[in-house]
Design brief:
mainly alpha, single chain, two-stranded antiparallel ribbon, 2 strands, 2% strand, MetI-like fold
Length: 293
């Protein structure tokens, strides 16, 4: 007998679909429309095709901002993922310490991005900041407003302080969800702590780590508020990431066409790299399913 499908549930989902279309699809189409047109003012536009895309993709300014963004995201992932996993493994699994640790881990995530930038802008100042003044007192030549290395270190440490907690909470949730039967079997077999982590915990955290990597990559690749508040893209252009450069082009210079083209390219880069991360990290599971009889 042929099964009759009931599509009434689509009507229940239609308000959410319309909201997504209004808040995401329509603005995206508007940006695409601006990216293929130019204007001399008076709200009159004329078609230029892919001219702005060629200008952006061949621009050394875009290439430099892109490589700075990639370097920042790579540093963030290389630090926050292992560090968050290590902290989650060290956290207690029962008792009153669980609540204390979870609250402490959640505190940085509750602070707005602009407040985080302001906190670190003051904290790292050489004249009045606790960190900057202390380092200067110990003889370190630290000044994030003049030294590019100090600016990069400040932004990376700030992001690690702010967002490692997200990785910790995700990994901790994955760890407590592992059935105790696996640990009991490991104890019976006399497995070492490293063997438990390698053969039980790490495989069970595969999906959790995938989510953590994707979230942290997308967030770090789109970071804007914190570097803008702390360094303003300086000193020079050393911390001018793609997001900062895009805002400068769109608002500071009011080049709507190139800014719209850069927005579309920016969106496609994030989408493509996220898809690449997902494909690579799920390939092992796909191959395993393909080998099943």
């Amino acid at each position: 007998m042929r099964k009759t499908l009931n599509h009434k549930a689509l009507w229940l989902a239609s308000p959410a679909l319309l909201l997504v279309a209004f808040t995401a699809l329509i603005p995206l189409l508007t940006v695409v429309n601006y990216s293929v047109q130019d204007t001399f003012g008076d709200n009159k536009f004329f078609w230029v095709g892919a001219e702005w895309y060629k200008e952006i993709l061949l621009s050394e300014r875009f290439h430099a901002a892109f490589f700075r963004q990639v370097a920042f995201s790579a540093a963030i992932l290389a630090i926050e993922i292992p560090l968050g996993l290590a902290i989650a493994l060290a956290m207690p699994k029962k008792g009153w310490g669980v609540s204390v640790c979870l609250v402490l881990m959640a505190l940085p995530l509750l602070i707005p991005w602009n407040v985080v930038g302001t906190i670190w802008q003051i904290f790292a100042r050489v004249d009045i900041g606790l960190l900057g003044h202390t380092l200067a007192g110990f003889g370190f030549d630290y000044n994030y407003t003049q030294d590019p290395v100090a600016a990069w270190i400040t932004l990376i440490v700030m992001d690690v302080w702010h967002w490692t907690s997200l990785v910790v909470l995700l990994c901790y949730a994955g760890l407590v969800a592992i059935p105790q039967a696996y640990y009991q079997a490991a104890r019976i077999d006399g497995a070492s702590r490293w063997a438990v982590f390698r053969h039980i915990e790490l495989p069970k955290l595969n999906r959790v780590l995938l989510i953590a990597v994707l979230l942290r990559f997308m967030d770090s690749f789109m970071i804007y508020t914190e570097p803008f508040v702390v360094t303003g893209g300086g000193p020079g252009n050393t911390t001018t990431f793609l997001s900062v450069d895009l805002v400068q082009m769109a608002i500071g210079q009011f080049d709507l066409g190139p800014a719209a083209a850069m927005s579309v390219v920016y969106f496609l880069i994030i989408l493509g790299l996220s898809w690449l991360f997902y494909t690579v990290m799920t390939r092992e599971d796909t191959d395993a399913e393909g080998r099943l009889p």
